[in-house]
Amino acid sequence: MAIRVMLVDDQALLRTGFRMVLAAQPDMEVVAEAGDGAEALDVLRATAVDVVLMDVRMPRLDGVEATRRICAQQDPPKVLILTTFDLDEYAFSGLKAGASGFMLKDVPPGELLTAIRAVHSGDAVVAPSTTRRLLDRFSPLLPSGTPEPADKHVARLTEREREVMLLVAQGLSNGEIAGRLVLSEATVKTHVGRILTKLGLRDRVQVVVLAYESGLVRAGGAGR
After folding, report:
1. Which residue among 17, 51, 139, 165 sits deepest, i.e. has the most Cβ atoms within 10 Å of its Cβ?
2. 128-138 and 88-97 helices, crossing angle to 10°
3. C-alpha distances in angstroms, 2 versus 20, 21, 124, 208?
4. Which residues of 172-183 are buried (b: 16+ CB within 10 A; e: fewer)?
5. What is the pTM of this model?
6. 184: CB partners within 8 A, 6+ apart
7. Of 218, 128, 134, 145, nearest to 180 (Cα)?
8. What is the tens place of the pLDDT at every residue in 1-18?
9. What sign does the dihedral 108-70-19-5 (CA atoms) show?
10. What is the C-alpha to C-alpha distance for residues 56 and 89, in angstroms, rounded to an integer?
C-alpha cells in the first residue's frame, strides 16, 4: 500500500513542487493538501493520512500548534516539520509538539523521499547530520530555568543503555552507534527500544529533546 502523504504549506508553488516529486514514486501518494494548520486539521478529520509534511509559519494556525493537535489525536499520522535555517527555532518546538523529525525546505528530493519512508516505518531520526547541526543552534533557545537532574531520567538505564542514549541524542544513526560501540545494528536497535520503554518516550526524537533539555547533551554534541 502506498504511503499516504499530506502537504501543508501556505505557498502553493512549494506544494506543487513536493507533489510532483512524490507523485513519481510508486510507493507514495499525495492524498491531501492544506494552506495552513487549521485547514489541515479539518482535512484530516475526513482523510486517512500516514505522513504529514508540515510547514511552520502559516496564517491562522502555525505548524507547531497544528502538529501538537494532530499528535494529541488517537492513532495520528507521522509529522515531518519543514523548516529553513532562518526559522530553525520553530523546528525544535515542532519536535516537542510531537513531530517525528524535521527537514530543511531545500532538501534534495532523494533525502526527502528517504525521510518520508523512514518516518513511515517508525524511525524518527530522519537526518542525523542535520539533527546535530540544528540542535546545536537550538541550544541557546532551550528553557533557561534549572533543568531536572539528568540522573533522574537515566537512573533506570544500564550503563550500556546510557551510552546508546547519549549517542542517539547526538544525532547518530543505529549504524553509526554500532560502529562507535562495536555492536551489531540489531543490538543497538534493541537497546534503543528498551530506552524508550524505560523512559516512557515515544520515539528517538523525544530522546534528543530530553537529552538537550536535561543537560545530558550540550551545544557541540558533547555528552555529560
Report:
1. 165
2. 100
3. 16, 14, 19, 30
4. bbbebbbeeeeb
5. 0.69
6. 178
7. 128
8. 899 999 999 999 999 999
9. positive
10. 10
